[in-house]
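For the sake of transparency, this paper describes our internal protein records without simplification. Such a record has a labelled line for the sequence and another for the backbone structure tokens. Nothing more is needed to write down the fold, since each code stands for a local backbone conformation. For reference, a complete record is included directly beneath this paragraph.
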Amino acid sequence: MRSGEGIFQARKQHFKPGTNVVTAQSLQQARDLFPFLFTPETRPVPQVITNIEDLRILAEQRVPRMFYDYADSGSWTESTYRANTTDFAPIKFRQRVAVNMEGRSTASEMIGQPVAMPVAIAPTGLTGMQHADGEILAARAAKKFGVPFTLSTMSICSIEDIAAATDRHPFWFQLYVMRDRDFIERLIDRAKAANCSALVLTLDLQVLGQRHKDLKNGLSAPPKLTVPNILNMMTKPRWCLGMLGTKRHGFGNIVGHVKGVENMGSLSEWTAKQFDPRLSWADVEWIKKRWAGKLIIKGIIDAEDAKLAVASGADAVIVSNHGGRQLDGAESSIRALPSIVAAVGSQIEVHLDSGIRSGQDVLKAIALGAKGTYIGRAMLYGLGAMGEAGVTKALEIIHKELDISMAFCGHTQLLTVDKSILLPGSFPV
């Protein structure tokens, strides 16, 4: 199978047992043979999209189970995955009245770059499997809205795809440290050439946390098209037709760029051996020198590691537990935030990732000292639900909630917000 053919070989052959192929013709044959599979979802579709949960419900209906579960799951018991969102709830605001609420602005900066609001799109793997050309669509939405887009190393669309689709608009690139250092050097050089304005270095994936849903669904590279997965895909005709319309089905940053990895089959073997358990701060120093630009360290959940990140010369740290996908039982990001801000907030920008589902979550994180936040799942829900329009909708929802909640707390400029807007005793310290 040649590079880029991946799961689908559109219009080349019918689906046959044992071949990872679904075509438009086979999809129509499936409709004729199994019309009951293509009946509308029984769960009601939200008529008006008012919050991120509405987008999640719609995405769950439109995205094949194995890919929806990949995005919407955590490791082991998923306790940290759940805590990332639920730990925001106890934090309460102080509502103020009789304050002039005109002239409001959520504008800010992240690592010196102007943003419409302190929200960046987080790097998420396999984004192009939530919706055809997903990374391109998300990058376009971010560009139009005025927030940073971060491309994952494990993306479906390549660095070059994003640069071409956004007219070389600056974006951020997330880097995993692989054993193949030659590949890492070339990946960094490709990010420079594509006009990436920041490198986001992830440190919390030296080994892979076990995600039960992925194992049960047979998610792999290439994905296992088991009978249950095939039948589930047949209930998602919108998704299937979208995939038939794109050539991007493999890991675009890797396939064809690594010696011996020319297709999805050889990629699986290569990837299994590449995440480097020996990763150290010396590697961070080497990468910083090679990159020679803005460096953001992602995966910090302990104040001691935050201090080491400062010593490495990074420009920002992201308080993140990988969305609850690595160490189950780790502290939620929002609970870890205050101690990290106290330890290093005067020396380095502190950002927060994991758990953001609303503009109020963003406001709480900013009040506790974060200079920026990231949305991963909220973006993926919008993308899976409605493509680029869904990503834009997710950003609009978060911005409106942030703007109005800020006003209720008596502020018109986000830059003036601090923990005084929070009810004493309701937030972690």
